[in-house]
Amino acid sequence: MSMLDLRRMMLLRDLADLGTVTAVAERRNITSSAVSQQLRVLEQETGAILFRRAGRTLGLTRSGRVLVEHARVVLGAVDDAMSALAAERDQVSGQVAVASYNLGIPAFAAPLVHRLSTDKPHLQVRLQQADADGALRLLRQNEVDVAIIYRCDFEAQDVLTGLTQQALLVEPFVLLAPTRLHPRVLSRGLAALADLAWVTGLVDSSLDIALLRAAERAGFTPRVTHRLVTAQIVCDLAATGVVPAIVPRLSVPPHLAHLIVEDIPVGHRTVSAVVRDRRRADPNIALILRTLRVIGAQALGEPRLSVAS
């Protein structure tokens, strides 16, 4: 039997966890046919019948389930080896790869790089931008070590088999509106802006859904006339004083903070750092997580913490 490929074993583990080839393909950002082809190669490499095929359904045989359990051990051992090697070093050093969503770069990843470049110059942080699903995919593929993600209060929780999630910040969505309208909103609520045009994100984006849900609770359907790609650009248009918007708090630059209508709840999202379970003991990863927690605690102006806490 030839040496088994770790990436194919990851696909097998994913199939056991998720149940369908389609779900595996979505997690790995490849086609279903590519998943099926790689699993067939794995079956050929082992010389065993790993799958039961019934139409388009692909199930695991007893041999397949046995290999899945060993695959979990092998893939976990790779992370254990990386953590053990890191622990053998006299100092925190080496490289840690971090994937983050767009706003997570200025809010978390850039401060992380800045702090560690001063405090731990022998540890290099390599950044990669990716949306939340993409960051988790890179983490599962062992292409990054830490994923910084967010999930809104209206989104389903992720299935994080084999991963550990640490909350960094509960970030509120905020309402931006011309200051002349703030008294009206504070008196009548969000419905006071029902007759205005709105700016938000692309259709079905988190910005779009946050606005629709908040408006629905206030009893109206917003008239959206502008759709933009990022929250920062939405803030820029809201700054004209022509249209209101609902955006995450950290997307609002200091010079536009006066547009925020305080005490109008419009939802929130939770920012988290995610790592593979078996890398938590790695001193490099542990330091990254501690530092991110400190950054998260200070993000909305809370009291300063030390990395050692």
TrEMBL record:
Q: What residues does the HTH lysR-type domain cover?
A: 4-61
Record key words, sorted = DNA-binding, Transcription, Transcription regulation
- Its domain of life reads Bacteria
* Pfam families in alphabetical order: HTH_1, LysR_substrate
Annotated GO molecular function terms are:
DNA-binding transcription factor activity; transcription cis-regulatory region binding
Q: Which family does it belong to?
A: Belongs to the LysR transcriptional regulatory family.
Entry's PANTHER family? Answer: HTH-TYPE TRANSCRIPTIONAL REGULATOR, LYSR FAMILY TRANSCRIPTIONAL REGULATOR
Q: What is this protein called?
A: Transcriptional regulator
